[in-house]
Write a structure and sequence with these properties.
Keywords: Coiled coil, DNA-binding, Isomerase, Topoisomerase. GO terms for molecular function: DNA topoisomerase type II (double strand cut, ATP-hydrolyzing) activity. Its EC number is 5.6.2.2. With 844 residues, this protein is of the alpha+beta class. Among the domains are: 29 residues, no CATH class; 129 residues, Topoisomerase II, domain 5; 85 residues, Gyrase A, domain 2, CATH 3.30.1360; 313 residues, 6 Propeller (Neuraminidase), CATH 2.120.10. The chain is built from 21 helices and 40 strands. A four-stranded mixed sheet has the order 14-9-8-17. Strand 18 and strand 19 form a beta hairpin. The longest helix has 42 residues. The two termini are 62 Å apart.
């Protein structure tokens, strides 16, 4: 104990709280990732790893006119001198700077296999070779020195490395950048050099240039893989605020192809360009999966005919299949159309900042003005030094006889230097230059050369002094430099931007295509095991006539996959599907297997994107988006009682990626979904038997954004969870309450007092057993029945009208009697098909 006190007293151990230490350490780690790894600098548009690669190659002399050098040599230099991280991280960064499909203006020139748009991996670094590209050598590393930019110590203080490169081009906009830091991310699209330089010149000429005029000069991003940007709304949002979503699609055309010998010519969709960062091989595989799953119809064959001359993917269509319809399905369900989420976040003065386009360009102009000033100042100092020496040499030549006499009679060089300084008013440097002057300088040609040098240096000094003293002249030189670089490296735009007029015309064409589609009335069935199928109305009626439902209320073994939801729909409708993780997806009704021979249909999860878990219980609710429902609100409730209200019309026309319907935290999940009309009340129930009723209005439950989490709906105890959510339209409605032990009752809604959201609710179910809990809260619809499932895989169908009607304090009756250790696990409404009814979503 005494030894420990001595150690504490000596200061070798500093006591600190765990909270403080973790907070400090994590903050240091976060700032290290943000500043030192993940985010680019707004000045040169580079992250530290890219800057170190370029500088190391500059030091190695790997200029465009020199032979290629092994990438392993470059990676080794970068690791040993500047970047103490993994070699694969450095090599991956190097590879991206070579790839023409990743960088709009590649900063490195590669020789060897550096991967492909099919996501083929590059060869190992011992095989590939690289060198600087002309644009990086001339536009980013020219005259790099401590006179132009600041340098700092490397990781072990053995080398100096530049803090920023003296780039003459706005690389952050030309090549873009992407990265994930701690708590923030950046995703900046590439742009066309000519357009960006035109914008910079316009900002130099007119500092008050309006945003609209600037955006006309820079109409949008220009991706290396081409493609087409849909509309300008997303571009304007990104440029004005620094954040936005830009829809991009591939370039397609229609052709007639000859499938093979003896076969008739068919229509085909030819894809020649894909959206930026879309893996071609993965996209083709996705199409094949959708075709095999029945979600994409009308496609007969897919062939990749791409070669070194360009991309060409042939999607051969079946006979009499409308090509425009298939193309719209490809846009909707595959990455042929995707969104580029713009986050223009970069380090500005060492601080991460989200910046609109104007701020990014102005930051570059300010930086370039600073580096030009430092460059011209450094050039002026060198010019004045040379001019000073030349002036001394000319003085010596003009007094040659006296100089020779002094040298002949001087005891040593030091004495001669002192005499020069005294007799001819020369400086020490001029005197040293005279002493070092070779005899050839005495010739006539050398004398003339010195006089010409003196005149040129004097003119150069005057020009540099004018540039440094007059900002207009400095900006004029900056414009001249930018225009010269544009003339040297500019190329035509690759990405086409669809105008608003063209977009409106396309929307009209799509509407005409949909209108031409034959609307067929159908019936969609969803089963307890997650299967979906559809039938014509006549086929459905014949099947129903053959089915016999056992309503004896006796539990029996589950020997089939019971239907839990039936919806009347048209083939032009979509099915909205919500999953436990809070995401929403849509599936076209026509994509659901029709009249399956074995009657099972297809798992609904297989019709959704591949990112959805394959388990059948991943799906919480299903709803056919009929026109008569689009003015309703969707109420979403999580297992822990978080509740959210969102307009149903926001969930129409979803892309294949779906969207986030409600933000769900770890340990929670979306549990219940229901539709609500204006004037409805909402009833929430807990496993403890408490019910809370409150109006669905802006005071209790405001309409929220799609990614919001929502407030707490009902206060629950530590051992309680939510057990149901029902929207009721009038006080005449009844609720069906079922417990885990098989007890149930019908409760009139008028017996529940109206409260506010977030209250504790009222006890509305009296338990006969202490271990019992409320398991289900459902609407008690007359002439309907419920299917009860137990933990022993047994089931029973109970007519709702057979359940006794009781008040809030009334006792319940046992509708089924589970065996010892068996409990009710699920209660589902057996919906009755009524094409004219407002069939809502059915959830567990």
């Amino acid at each position: 104990m005494a030894d420990q006190l001595d150690i504490l007293a000596s200061g070798q151990i500093v006591p600190t709280s765990l909270h403080t230490e973790v907070q400090r350490s994590y903050l240091e780690y976060a700032m290290s990732v943000i500043v030192g790894r993940a985010l680019p600098d707004v000045r040169d548009g580079l992250k530290p790893v890219h800057r170190r690669i370029l500088y190391a190659m500059h030091e190695l002399g790997l200029t465009p006119d020199r032979p290629y050098r092994k990438c392993a040599r470059v990676v080794g230099d970068v690791l040993g001198k500047y970047h103490p991280h993994g070699d694969q991280a450095v090599y991956e960064a190097l590879v991206r700077m070579v790839q023409t499909f990743s960088s709009r203006y590649p900063l490195l020139d590669g020789h060897g296999n550096f991967g492909s748009v099919d996501n083929d991996p590059p060869a190992a670094m011992r095989y590939t070779e690289t060198r600087l590209s002309p644009i990086s050598n001339e536009g980013m590393l020219t005259d790099i020195s401590e006179a132009l930019v600041d340098f700092s110590d490397n990781f072990d203080s053995s080398q100096q490395e530049p803090v920023v490169l003296p780039t003459q081009l706005p690389n952050l906009l030309l090549n873009g950048s992407s990265g994930i830091a701690v708590g923030m991310a950046t995703n900046i699209p590439p742009h066309n050099m000519g357009e960006v330089i035109d914008g910079l010149v316009a900002m130099i000429d007119r500092p008050t240039l309006s945003d609209d005029e600037l955006f006309r000069l820079i109409p949008g991003p220009d991706f290396p893989t081409g493609g087409e940007i849909i509309g300008t709304e997303g571009i304007l949002d990104a440029y004005r605020t620094g954040r936005g979503s830009i829809p991009i699609r591939g370039i397609c055309q229609f052709e007639e192809v000859h499938p093979g010998r003896g076969r008739q010519r068919r229509n085909a969709i030819i894809v020649t360009e894909l959206p930026y960062q879309v893996n071609k091989a993965g996209w083709i595989e996705k199409i094949a999966q959708l075709v095999n799953a029945g979600r994409l119809e009308g496609i007969a064959d897919i062939r990749d005919e791409s070669d070194r001359d360009g991309m060409r993917v042939v999607i051969e269509l079946k006979r009499d299949t409308p090509a425009h319809r298939v193309l719209q399905d490809l846009y909707r369900t595959t990455p042929l159309q995707t969104n580029f989420g713009v986050i223009m976040l970069a380090l500005d003065n060492g601080q991460p900042r989200q910046m609109p386009l104007r701020d990014v360009m102005q930051a570059f102009l300010d930086f370039r003005e600073t580096t030009l000033t430092r460059h011209y100042q450094h050039q002026l100092e060198k010019t004045e030094a040379k001019l000073h020496i030349t002036e001394g040499l000319l003085t010596a030549l003009n007094n040659l006889d006296a100089i020779i006499d002094i040298l002949r009679n001087a005891a040593d060089g030091t004495t001669a230097k002192q005499i020069f300084q005294q007799q001819f008013d020369l400086s020490e440097r001029q005197s040293d230059a005279i002493l070092a002057m070779p005899l050839r300088k005495l010739t006539g040609m050398e004398r003339q050369g010195l006089e010409n040098d003196f005149a040129e240096l004097s003119q150069r000094r005057d020009d540099l002094t004018r540039l440094l003293s007059d900002r207009k002249e400095l900006l004029k030189a900056m414009k001249k430099e930018l225009k010269a670089l544009k003339k040297r490296f500019n190329d035509p735009r690759r990405t086409r931007i669809q105008t608003d007029a063209e977009r409106a015309e396309e929307s009209q064409q799509v509407g005409d295509i949909i209108a031409e589609t034959v609307e067929e009335a159908t019936v969609v069935e969803f089963t307890q095991k997650g299967y979906v199928r559809r039938f014509s109305q006549k086929s459905y009626q014949r099947r129903q006539a053959r089915l016999e439902v056992d309503t004896s209320a006796k539990l029996h073994e589950v020997d089939d996959d019971p239907v839990v939801q039936v919806e009347a729909a048209l083939t032009t409708h979509e099915v909205l599907t919500l999953t436990r993780d809070g995401r929403a997806f849509t599936v076209a009704v026509e994509a659901v297997p029709a009249n399956p021979r074995q009657g099972k249909g297809a798992p609904l999860v297989q019709l959704l994107p591949g990112s959805v878990p394959s388990a059948a219980d991943a799906i919480v609710a299903r709803l056919v988006l009929r026109d008569d429902l689009l003015e309703h609100d969707l109420i979403l409730v999580t297992r822990k009682g978080k509740i959210k209200r969102a307009p149903l019309k926001e969930f129409t026309n979803l892309t294949g990626r779906g969207l986030t319907a409600i933000k769900v935290k770890d340990g929670d999940e979306l549990a219940y979904v229901t539709l609500a009309e204006p004037g409805d009340d909402l009833v929430l129930g807990t496993t403890g038997g408490r019910l809370l009723r409150f109006p669905i209005d802006d005071d209790n439950l405001q309409v929220m954004g799609r990614a919001a989490q929502g407030p707490q709906g009902i206060r629950m105890g530590k051992q309680e969870t939510l057990t149901g959510c029902v929207a009721v339209q009038s006080s005449k409605d009844c609720l069906l309450l079922v417990s885990a032990a098989g007890y149930a009752k019908r409760l009139p809604v008028e017996g529940l007092r109206v409260a506010k959201r977030g209250d504790i609710g009222t006890q509305s179910f009296q338990f006969s057993l202490k271990t019992d809990s409320l398991m289900a809260l459902l609407p008690a619809v007359p002439k309907e029945a419920v299917t009860v499932f137990t933990s022993a895989d047994r089931t029973a169908v109970i007519p709702i009208e057979s359940v006794p009607r009781q008040g809030r304090t009334g006792e319940s009756d046992r509708i089924v009697k589970p065996s010892k250790g068996e409990t009710i696990t699920q209660v589902i409404r057996v919906t009755v098909l009524d094409p004219d009814a407002n069939n809502g979503a059915v959830s567990e």
